[in-house]
From TrEMBL:
Pathway involvement of the protein, from the record: Protein modification; protein ubiquitination
Protein name: SKP1-like protein
Highest taxon in the source lineage: Eukaryota
UniProt organism field: Senna tora
InterPro entries: SKP1, SKP1-like, SKP1-like_dim_sf, SKP1/BTB/POZ_sf, Skp1_comp_dimer, Skp1_comp_POZ
Length: 156
């Protein structure tokens, strides 16, 4: 019988891709961890909310973090890798990864990706934020002025 460390689990993405990964990778996801503990993995674990592209990035992240019990704030190499990992993502992939890490309940990955979005917003005007994220302004100039007056503190 294979040890827990040698055990492999198949993850099935929403678009039909199969990924065979070690239990050390799967255990970083609270969602998948419970499935493994409940022995619900014999025929693979279907992930209807996660595309193959997103799952590939999740696995890349989890492989890098395998064996690290908790995020180590003094591990400069890992911090640098994490930073490069999210900075190099295009926006659609970043947002898909946020959704995947939320669905899979991978707290450190969710925190990392959400921090990246916060960094993209920090210090920008509403107009710059709309431009960055391709958001259409659906306020009329009058409505926008009213919101600014009612919430002056937010625009200081």
């Amino acid at each position: 019988m294979a040890s827990t460390d040698d055990k492999k689990v198949t993850l099935l993405s929403s678009d039909g891709e199969a990924f065979v990964v070690g239990v050390d990778v799967v255990m970083q996801s609270q969602t998948l961890k419970h499935m493994v503990e409940d022995s619900c993995v014999d025929n693979g674990i279907p992930l209807p909310n996660v595309t193959g592209k997103s799952l590939s990035k999740v696995i890349e992240y989890c492989n890098k973090h395998a064996g690290v019990d908790k995020y180590d704030p003094v591990n400069e190499e890992l911090k640098s890798w994490d930073s490069d990992f999210v900075v190099n993502l295009d926006q659609p992939t970043l947002f898909d990864l946020i959704e995947a890490s939320n669905y899979l309940d991978i707290k450190n990955l969710l925190d990392l990706t959400c921090k990246r979005v916060a960094d993209m917003i920090r210090g920008k005007t509403p107009e710059e934020i709309r431009e960055t994220f391709h958001i259409k302004n659906d306020y009329t100039p009058e409505e926008e002025e009213e919101v600014r007056r009612e919430n002056e503190w937010a625009f200081e």
